[in-house]
């Protein structure tokens, strides 16, 4: 049987050192081959036509034309999976998020001052593999507001059916043990944005794990905070998970939800990576006490790999309301597929259906079988 063709990558960066580091890191994987490099977007345009790469890595700060301008042109004229290599400055973080809005698949921090990628090499290789199978979005396109449930699973034998949902009030005064837990990876920054901007104020606390590099998570939370009907912040250790507020796990830190007896607080740690990720969705999902399971609303959105599936199975067996993003609306249908096929997700939802689904679930009365 013939081996599959390696993923063909074009590296676009004005730094010779970075081009070499990226090339060496990618060529270390037999499933990937760097077919060429370019020093700026004008050279990149010719190389794309000549080499037909599967994936592009793109610097944002380059001579003659900046990366954002080039990305916009590329997505309009010749859409291609793009991984952004961005500086760790505040401006670089916000530019990277704008690149994701324009259609880039993922963002990674540029190596700086070192002649070795270290752990970033593995992250870059995984990002390229995810990008190669990604479903490209039209720049700035939003999911349809009206969308339907794709499929549903029968309940686990030990799961207690929830009461019929009702619409949540504008001012949440429900059980303090209820949480909304969301996890995502590749394509998740835009998917989460599309869901969260449609949610009203006054919901239970929301805890979010997005696979994202350190330094970029704060810009991500700040951007959501300007768009949502409720405050969104990057979590700090010990922050309360308060009704009407969303906390985003900081890059390079796991986030857990710890019950204090009167409410939940975020607990951060820099423990070992889980599924090659820190933060990891499974760490958040598994931190919730099983006794509170039937009060949880939890979902796994677009992303490569298996993170979140084990935790979602655990939550569903404890009675949680669970869902996964459907294939058609996912940029990468990896994590949602795993969550669905393992039985962790009760339903698959298109991206446009999630907000209404969450609001209905948040309005449910407390199931009578739940104990403290």
Give a brief rundown of this model:
Helix 3 runs parallel beside helix 4 (90-102), helix 4 (90-102) packs across helix 7 and helix 8 (281-287) runs parallel beside helix 9. This protein has helices spanning 16-27, 41-51, 67-77, 90-102, 120-132, 188-196, 216-227, 281-287, 309-317, 335-341, 354-362; strands at residues 7-12, 32-38, 55-59, 82-86, 106-109, 149-152, 179-184, 206-210, 232-234, 240-241, 246-248, 254-259, 264-269, 296-300, 321-325, 347-349.
Description:
The chain has eleven helices and 16 strands. It has helices at residues 16-27, 41-51, 67-77, 90-102, 120-132, 188-196, 216-227, 281-287, 309-317, 335-341, 354-362; strands at residues 7-12, 32-38, 55-59, 82-86, 106-109, 149-152, 179-184, 206-210, 232-234, 240-241, 246-248, 254-259, 264-269, 296-300, 321-325, 347-349. The strands form three sheets. Strands 6-16-15-14-7-8-11-9 form an eight-stranded mixed β-sheet, with helices on both faces. α4 crosses α7 (216-227), α8 packs parallel to α9 (309-317) and α9 (309-317) packs parallel to α10 (335-341). Residues 157-170 and 365-372 have low confidence and may be disordered.
* Mean pLDDT score: 87
- Could you describe the largest sheet, including whether it forms a barrel? 8 strands, mixed
In whole angstroms, the N-to-C terminal distance is 57 Å
Please provide the ordered H/E string of secondary-structure elements. EHEHEHEHEHEEHEHEEEEEHEHEHEH
Shape: globular
Strand order of the largest sheet: 6-16-15-14-7-8-11-9
């Amino acid at each position: 049987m013939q081996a599959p063709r390696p993923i063909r990558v074009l590296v676009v960066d004005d730094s010779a050192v970075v081009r070499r580091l990226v090339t060496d890191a990618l060529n270390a994987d037999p499933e990937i081959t760097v077919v060429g490099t370019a020093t700026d977007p004008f050279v990149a345009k010719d190389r794309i036509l000549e080499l037909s790469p599967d994936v592009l890595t793109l610097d944002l700060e380059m001579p003659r034309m900046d990366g954002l301008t080039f990305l916009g042109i590329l997505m309009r004229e010749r859409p291609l999976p793009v991984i952004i290599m961005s500086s760790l400055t505040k401006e670089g973080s916000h530019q990277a998020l704008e690149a994701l809005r324009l259609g880039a698949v993922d963002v990674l921090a540029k190596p700086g001052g070192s002649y070795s990628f270290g752990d970033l090499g593995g992250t870059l290789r995984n990002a390229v593999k995810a990008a190669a199978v990604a479903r490209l979005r039209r720049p700035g396109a939003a999911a349809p507001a009206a969308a339907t449930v794709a499929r549903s699973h029968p309940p686990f034998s030990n799961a207690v059916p929830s009461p019929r949902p009702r619409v949540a009030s504008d001012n949440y005064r429900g059980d303090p043990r209820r949480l909304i837990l969301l996890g995502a990876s590749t394509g998740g920054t835009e998917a989460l944005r599309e869901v969260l901007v449609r949610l009203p104020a006054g919901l239970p606390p929301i805890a979010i794990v997005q696979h994202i590099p350190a330094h970029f998570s704060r810009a991500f939370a700040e951007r959501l905070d300007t768009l949502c009907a409720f405050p969104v912040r990057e979590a700090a250790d010990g922050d309360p998970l308060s009704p009407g507020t969303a906390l985003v796990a900081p890059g390079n830190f796991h986030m857990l939800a710890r019950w204090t007896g009167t409410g939940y607080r975020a607990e951060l740690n820099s423990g070992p990576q889980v599924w090659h990720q820190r933060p990891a969705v499974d760490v958040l999902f598994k931190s919730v006490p099983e006794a509170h399971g039937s009060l949880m609303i939890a979902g796994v959105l677009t992303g490569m790999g298996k993170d979140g599936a084990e935790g979602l199975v655990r939550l569903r067996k404890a009675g949680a309301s669970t869902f996964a993003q459907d294939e058609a609306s996912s940029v990468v249908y990896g994590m949602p597929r795993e969550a669905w096929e393992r039985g962790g997700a009760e339903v698959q939802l298109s991206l446009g259906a999630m907000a209404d689904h969450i609001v209905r679930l948040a309005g449910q009365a407390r199931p009578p079988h739940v104990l403290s």
